[in-house]
Amino acid sequence: MKSIAIFGSTGSIGTHTLAVIARHPDRYRVYALVAHAQIDVLWAQIRQFSPRIVGVADPLAAVALRARLHAELKDTQHCPEVVTDPLALAALAADPLVDCVVAAIVGVAGLASTWSAVCAGKQVLLANKESLVAAGQLMMTAAQASGATILPIDSEHNAIFQCLPAGVSPPDAVLKLVLTASGGPFRSLPLSEFSNITPADACRHPNWRMGPKISVDSATMMNKGLEVIEAAWLFSMPPDRIEVVVHPQSVIHSMVQYADGSMLAQLGRPDMRTPIAHALAWPERIDSGVAPLDLCAVSGLQFEAPDRQRFPCLDLAFRAIEQGGAAPLVLNAANEIAVAAFLDHRLSFQQIPQVIEATLEAALMGTEPAAPESIEQVLTQDARARTLAHRLLTKINPHPENSTPATESST
Ligand SMILES: NC(=O)c1ccc[n+]([C@@H]2O[C@H](COP(=O)([O-])OP(=O)(O)OC[C@H]3O[C@@H](n4cnc5c(N)ncnc54)[C@H](OP(=O)(O)O)[C@@H]3O)[C@@H](O)[C@H]2O)c1
């Protein structure tokens, strides 16, 4: 029985993970659940999965959850311990009773627990790409030292993992990793209409149902940029051998191109339960609850080069990984600030890349940026980049009240 801790259990990845686990009570036991503040969702999860420990990052929400547990589950075997202190939350990822950590917190907020799990040599099912973008070198070095296994559940990286058997030889047998991208909701929206884009429009992804931050990242294609950086670290691949191809049907989740002319692809429905089930059971295979792909029902498979003018975030991400050092970390921090401001109607959709570019320029000032040498340095540099991004945001958009159209439009 594998003992699992899910960090970000109330989010899109967290709930999909629990849906797969619920199908296999003989294989998996939920030891810990961690969320930020959504205690109603957490409550339902506690009732269904009876975890031993529950982490709630927001202290007020933790107080409310404790009160509810006290009133309804006190003195029963189903009453979990509640932790809220940041150090205790990070330590939970290294708990000796945990075999597998699902890293599904959104943003750099997931860094401390992912780092803790990696340093403790856990099996880490990684959805939280931002921690690898911010601290890729440190994470991969720590995983090697501790013996941690990082299994990607981002669908693209999971597809590449499936198409790239360990020990492919010689090392240059792999020519390229090809990451597919749906193109998001604005792939064919006239550029002249971009100024009308609202947060609701950006969160309406054509193929995937995801949390708000990654939905906006998909709409700007920064998500693909972050994935390029994630792939570079996970598969030790130079960025110039990682290609992004727009594939609107989201049937092929990514591909590996080999020197002999072969191209291996992983296909499936756009449903995160497939990569999650793959990583949970690896190297075995289990039922995920996802219906098999019906090839005859797939209308066709289209591929096109990404439109770099429409999606400047993609080039910003490529530039950051090529620059190296602290650049990806700054890119990620500025993106988190800009996306949060857009979701909060304080920034327009087209200003998101402007804030990121301005922050990169101001933070790095044309110098060779130094790579952080410890997680503490990552957190310090991340905090600095956020402050800078906040400052630049108010310069770029001095009138936040006019940032997005007053009425929600549709695309
Ligand atoms: N969704 C997808 O299909 C998908 C696919 C590939 C990769 N990913 C990656 O997976 C990660 C999660 O994405 P998502 O779409 O699942 O996001 P989401 O739906 O917004 O869920 C985020 C989760 O993180 C928790 N959280 C946020 N801040 C926290 C904090 N400070 N401490 C503890 N928990 C915190 C949230 O708790 P509350 O609910 O209490 O706020 C929630 O459980 C992201 O890195 C994303 O890029 C997602």
Plain-language structure description:
The relative contact order is 0.11. A hairpin with a 4-residue loop joins strand 10 and strand 11 (263-267). Helix 13 (327-343) packs antiparallel against helix 14 and helix 14 packs across helix 15. It is built from 15 helices and eleven strands. It is 44% helix and 14% strand. The N and C termini lie far apart (47 Å). It has three domains: 2-153, Rossmann fold (3-Layer(aba) Sandwich), CATH 3.40.50.720; 154-182 and 247-308, no CATH class; 184-221 and 311-411, RNA polymerase sigma factor, region 2, helix turn helix motif (Rna Polymerase Sigma Factor, Chain: A). It binds NADP nicotinamide-adenine-dinucleotide phosphate. Residues 8-14, 34-38, 57, 104-106, 109, 127-130, 154, 208, 210-211, 213-214, 272 line the site of NADP nicotinamide-adenine-dinucleotide phosphate (NAP).
